[in-house]
Amino acid sequence: MNKRKLKEKLAYLFLELMVLIILFSIGLMFYFIISRGIRIINWEFLTQMPRKAMTAGGIFPAILGTFYLTISTICFALPLGISAAIYLTEYATQNRLIRIVRVSINNLAGVPSVVFGLFGLAIFVKFLHFGVSILSGSLTLGVLILPIIIQTSEEALSAVPKSFREASLALGATKWQTIQKIVLPNSFSGILTGSIISIGRATGETAPILFTAVTFYTMRLPNSIFSEVMALPYHIYALMTEGTHPESQVPIAYGTALVLVFLVLGLNLIAIIWRNRFRRSKKW
Amino acid sequence: MKCKQHLTEKIIKNIFFLSSLTSIFFLLGISFILFKEGLPLFREIDLKSFLWGKSWYPTYNPPEFGLLPLILGTLWVTLGALIIAVPLGVSAAIYISELATPKIKDYLKLAIEMLTSIPSVIYGFLGIVVLGPWLQNLLNLSIGLCSLTASLLLALMAIPTIASISEEALFSVPKDYKEASYALGATKWETIAQVTVPAAFSGISTAVLLGMGRVIGETMTVLMVAGGAAIIPHSFLQPVRTITATIALEMGETVVGSNHYYALFAIACVLFIISLTLNLSADYFLNKFRRISR
User: Fold this and answer.
1) Domain boundaries, chain A
2) Which residue of A122, A189, A199, A248 pairs with A278 in a disulfide if CB–CB is 3.0 to 4.6 A?
3) CATH says A60-280 is which class?
4) How many whole angstroms separate alpha carbon B24 and alpha carbon B15?
5) pLDDT tens sequence across B38-85
6) To the nearest whole angstrom, how far is the Cα of B119 from the nearest Cα of chain A?
7) Left (φ > 0), alpha (ψ -120 to 50) or beta: where does A51 sit?
8) What confidence score (pLDDT) does residue B113 get?
9) How far is A84 from chain B (nearest CA, A)?
């Protein structure tokens, strides 16, 4: 009997150790990014152009570029993703076509991000002649986050109880009226949470925009959706792999990393807090 | 009036229907583009020397496009990452679903969720400035950026996928199973090890396959920390080059329509097929698990 208890204790100890290793790694990552990044961040760093071939100055164009890319990605992917989710939860019946749609969504979510980059390069940059631009990059990112938006929106829509819909239909409302007045308002928080999470994903991706949107260094700020841009994630990569002054580039990269992590985690935290509040206040 | 309303309803339904078809369209579009731009390579290079070629020297004269070092590099880094991530991820899942109190459970899930949201370029960056130099000192290596460094970071990225899906699988094991085991006098640990985990096995397999998919497709981290040498790997302390890193590194320098350009799309086809296979098998295991747990 004692031996069995001992075995149990050892097993629990092992599990706890594994969890601690994970937590320790997470802590270490944040420690390095925050403690090193905070030293360089000030108002000038956030609002000025880079100077002296990226060895001094700020990262303003990269922040602006990431902002533009993210906004245009949302404009493209959000309406498309939410409409698709509405069809799948509200209209679709179980048939072969719908099964194929679902399999496609799952598989699209698993396609490596660099493959999206190649797709964007061949279709948007070359075939449609959008060039290396905000437009090409955000369309590519849009295709990448589409499955995430569909999956999370679908979850939110199907969480609305069936009786709500039935009550509306019984009052003589049409299907679209029911969706518009009953289903969407009641699933709004869930859809918003999913959208924010997918926006965070789009903000941090590098590989898809590598050949479709970004440039290491440009003196001009983007003036249309056909401009190429600097972007935060690519800026970190470029600072670490190009240029000849690592001693002054690494601190800038730390600062950029902190800004990027702050943005992405901030978005995710907002989404998570929103989700928890929504779950608590749910009336059904 | 009624007729007009009916028409609006119909139009709206069709708009939604078309939006739902875009995923099929994009997936087919991606496969079409990859094959269309990849297949012209085989006009000049035969399939066998591509698949079994032992060297990747795209800019030599004559160039060599051998897949073997790249695919072995990819599998090598993935293997390393899974060796680290599977025990950590599955243990975390067991701890969260079976042992943790509800409050600790929430915090742990939140912490692990944070790992997913960190962009991959940040992992790569920390690999270059922190982990690489540290490993170099610790193990007395000539270079800190090698396949071990990449595997360690990729493991961290795979842990959230493995942990969350395994946790779901463990959670959905019916309570009766555990109660039956307790009734037979088994301890809590004996129940976990001999009843709960085996019952959730298909679900855990799904988790591992999806984690593997995440690692194989990862680009920026391996591009930055794996060392970049396109050689057939023999040890975890050697630099390696993966398929994803090769595409990201070389696509910017190729001329559209050159053999090198076609070759990069051809290796992307291979990558695409691998990740499609992983996803479909994960799907298969998941359905099997659902059928059993019902």
Assistant:
1) 60-280
2) A189
3) mainly alpha
4) 15
5) 999 888 888 888 888 888 888 777 888 888 899 999 999 999 999 999
6) 5
7) beta
8) 84
9) 4
